[in-house]
Design a protein that fits this description.
Blueprint (H helix, E strand, L loop, with lengths): L11 H9 L7 H12 L3 E4 L6 H12 L9 E4 L3 H14 L7 E4 L5 H11 L3 E4 L1 H9 L10 E4 L2 H4 L5 H10 L5 E6 L4 H7 L7 E4 L9 E7 L5 H12 L4 E4 L6 H10 L4 E4 L5 H12 L5 E4 L1 H4 L9 E4 L6 H8 L9 E7 L4 H11 L3 E3 L1 E3 L2 E3 L44
Parallel strand pairs: 1-6, 1-7, 2-4, 2-5, 3-4, 5-6, 8-13, 8-14, 9-11, 9-12, 10-11, 12-13
Antiparallel strand pairs: 15-16
Helix pairs in contact: 2-3, 3-4, 6-8, 14-15
């Protein structure tokens, strides 16, 4: 018999909300993490992006909240404004009908207004970026003596050189017996080692993707570096999906990509870390709503963004490491949906993709674009003693060339069309 959320002892109000949303069965990470969190154990949780990690900690945390106690009882730390707002919105949805408040706290917003909202709302849960939260703690504007649980989301980034110090300072200001939870798509040894400074006998959970997931096809295309933009354009035309995210390593390259794609009637926008909070929010909202089909971004800008319907990821530049490859690729195929992941590389960069495949255990297959299809390159490679090919490329499309479940959707209205 399969496990349900009711079997996990989630509180009745939360179960009601889950049933209204037709959510009955937990994902593997939820099934493994929720009981341990309800027990009060510290935990380090690794699960692929898009497998339900947010609910894996929100459901038990909100189930344990004392509605009679109008103090901050839980903290969630996240690296970006967008992720903070997403987590807070999900918590608000779960608390629908209950007189319990959630407050997002981010930098770039007037501190006085945030302090006023703290006093007025009396939130039981605060979701925050670590820098601004630490600022409020140092000013004694936020009390954490009643905090029972602290969650560090995107832990592999939050414990690096940029965020590690403020995260550590926040931990020092909570009580010694406060529950500490770290969640991430990847938990490298360095993160596990760094967490020992503030966790107590943590359970390590490494959860898999849900069974029956449609799967994500990982592929790469070899391109002349001078023709990469044209390769990208042809690829986006070929897959013809409603939403794609293109990752670049250097923001300086983006202007050329944006101008050429727009010139060829492939509307796209840039998600830029230097844009204002309002501009970034507008770009993400319009992308979610399908106003434009291609979002171009760097890793910093896109970290933690949850857009469930993204069908295609393109690594225009190779990811700097295997963990980043996993995070980027995890923007598609969320919650068991099908998805496509492509890397566009030079012939000299093949070793990078092969290394990622070995380190992640993901098969990443080379493909070529020919006659409107993604095909295996082997027919084009002349074997010793083989006769020259005289015919065209085979036109059959391999199954991996399109998401398994949604292949019939990509040519419907809302795609790129045939220009």
């Amino acid at each position: 018999m399969s496990t349900t959320f009711a079997d996990l002892h989630i509180s009745a109000p939360l179960l009601h909300v889950l049933r209204e949303r037709n959510m009955e069965k937990p994902t593997p990470v939820q099934e493994q993490a929720i009981p341990l969190i309800l027990e009060g154990r510290d935990a380090l949780v690794e699960s692929p992006t898009g497998t339900g990690k947010t609910y894996a900690y929100l459901l038990p945390i909100l189930s344990k909240v004392n509605p009679e106690q109008k103090d901050v009882q839980a903290l969630v730390l996240a690296p970006t404004h967008e992720l903070v707002m997403q987590i807070a919105q999900e918590a608000d949805r779960l608390l629908a009908g209950q007189e319990l408040a959630v407050l997002p706290i981010i930098g770039g917003v007037d501190v006085k207004r945030q302090v006023e909202r703290l006093k007025k709302m009396k939130p039981v849960l605060v979701v925050a970026t670590p820098g601004r939260l630490l600022e409020l703690l140092e000013q004694r504007k936020l009390k954490v003596h009643e905090v029972k649980t602290v969650v560090v989301d995107e832990a592999d980034r939050m414990l690096d050189a940029g965020f590690g110090k403020p995260v550590g300072e926040v931990m020092k200001r909570t009580l010694r017996d406060t529950q500490r939870l770290l969640f991430s798509a990847t938990l490298p040894a360095g993160v596990i080692g760094a967490s020992q400074a503030f966790t107590k006998d943590p359970v390590v959970i490494r959860a898999a993707a849900p069974e029956g997931a449609a799967g994500v096809a990982h592929m790469y295309l070899v391109s002349d570096p001078r023709k990469k933009v044209d390769t990208l354009r042809r690829l986006l035309r070929l897959v013809n999906v409603r939403s794609s995210i293109v990752f670049v390593n250097q923001i300086e390259k983006v202007d050329e990509i944006v101008s050429k794609l727009n010139f060829h009637h492939l509307p796209c926008r840039l998600l830029h870390r230097d844009a204002t909070k309002e501009e970034r929010a507008l770009t993400l909202r319009q992308f979610r709503e399908g106003v434009f089909p291609v979002l171009i971004t760097t890793d910093v800008s896109a970290r933690g963004i949850d857009i469930p319907e993204v069908e295609c990821i393109v690594h225009y530049d190779p990811a700097p490491d295997a963990d980043t490859y996993v995070h980027r690729s995890g923007r598609t195929g969320r919650m068991g949906r099908a998805g496509l992941v492509f890397s566009i590389i030079s012939s000299q960069e093949r070793f990078i993709v092969q290394k990622f495949s070995k380190q992640t255990g993901l098969p990443i297959d080379e493909k070529v674009m020919s006659h409107g299809a993604l095909e295996d390159p082997r027919p084009y490679q002349k074997a010793p003693g083989a006769k020259p090919r005289t015919g065209g490329a085979p036109k059959s499309k391999p199954e991996a060339a399109r998401p398994a479940k949604d292949a019939n959707r990509v040519h419907k209205k809302g795609g790129f069309g045939t220009k």
